[in-house]
Amino acid sequence: MKKEILFGLLIALVIAVFISPFASKSPDGLDKTAEDLKFVDKAEGKTVISAPIPDYAVPGISNEVVAGSSAGLIGTLVVFGVAYGAGKVFQKKNNQSKSL
Amino acid sequence: MHIPDGFLDTKIWAPMSVVAAGIVAYASKQVNKELGEKQIPLMGVMGAFVFAAQMINFPVAGGTSGHFLGGLLSAVLLGPWSAVLVMTANFIVQCLLFQDGGLTALGANIFNMGILGCLVGYAIYKAIANAIGGNKGLLIGTAVAAWCSVMLASAGCAIEIALSGTIPFSLVFPAMMGVHTLIGLGEALISTVALSYVLKVREDIIFDVPKV
Q1: What percentage of chain B carries pLDDT values higher than 90?
Q2: Domain enclosing residue B149, as ranges
Q3: Count of the separate structural domains present in chain B
Q4: Which end of chain B has fewer CB atoms within 10 angstroms, the N or the C?
Q5: What is the pLDDT of residue A97?
Q6: Which chain B residue has the Cα nearest residue A12?
Q7: ipTM for the complex?
Q8: Residue of A nearest to B52 (CA)
């Protein structure tokens, strides 16, 4: 199983680091709808918190591709950790409450 | 399809956050029933894949792009409740780290793009997969349910935005459903290709293979 997990993570990292620079820059379905129907401005200046890596580009890296790929690398590893960690914590908790 | 802050009124995003939190809390109690200890790392792998794949916007007609959601594929591979947790992890990280989707809209985004695909999408998948049977059922069920999961997500998104008074339902609903009809085909294609690959290399990790 360990081999499969590393291989799966590797596939995700390759996508996030090496394929993400080729992603379409066009607005997605919701953004495009918001532009066409002219309600996109309702989100302007409404952001509640400022995130450390806005718009999938690591700040301070001038090369657009490197900034984007670095964001992909960080995000993939963080989501891996959070999802794995959540599974582990909840499983342990459930097993404990079962044995009580 | 990540809703930013500002599109949803408090009277919509607050209840959506409560509903999403309730479902995620319930999902957290179901992990044991779906996954053994050795399979838990697969949740990490699935989360990593969903995050990475969501970065890849593919062009559809008229200067618009779409991206993979992954809730349905996660549910088919890991089970619906584990998939809810995986998708939730992804949306929380996207929101807090990358400002993709507003904090006020986090519950709505988890519900639309995660929970609907994981639970309703999975029910659609299962009905089709069992009716057809075998690997054929698995793949056809996945393709159809994946498309449906995108339509459900865009319907949910459009309804919430309309109920918030941001834009009339008669305008936003047909526009969202129209553009996502095409984006849903991308979801069906990616989900089916990924599933065929897993079927080939590690069939045993698939959560619930339909009866033959």
Answers
A1: 93
A2: 10-205
A3: 1
A4: C
A5: 79
A6: B49
A7: 0.96
A8: A16
Instruction: Measure in Å the smallest separation between the Cα of A63 and chain B Cα atoms.
Output: 18
In this structure, is residue B1 part of a structural domain? Answer: no
Q: Give the model's confidence band at A100: pLDDT under 50 very low, under 70 low, under 90 confident, else very high.
A: low
For helices B71-78 and B134-163, give the axis angle rounded to 10 degrees.
140
Both tokens assigned to B96: 């807090």
A83 to B48: CB separation less than 8 angstroms, yes or no: yes
Quickly state the pLDDT bin for B151 (edges 50, 70, 90): very high
For residue A60, what are its two tokens?
A: 């301070």
pLDDT at B212: 55
CATH number at residue B110: 1.10.1760.20
End-to-end CA distance of chain A: 31
Q: What is the pLDDT of residue B210?
A: 64
Task: Name the residue facing B57 among A26, A81, A95 (closest C-beta).
Answer: A26
Chain B positions touching A1 (Cβ under 8 A) are 38-39, 41
CA B149 to chain CA centroid, Å, is 6
Q: What average pLDDT does the segment A54-68 reach?
A: 96
Q: Which domain holds residue A77?
A: 2-45+53-99
User: For residue B3, which phi and psi values (nearest 5 degrees)?
Assistant: -75, 130
Q: What's the total number of domains in chain A?
A: 1
Q: Do A8 and B180 touch (CB under 8 A)?
A: no
B129 domain-assigned: yes
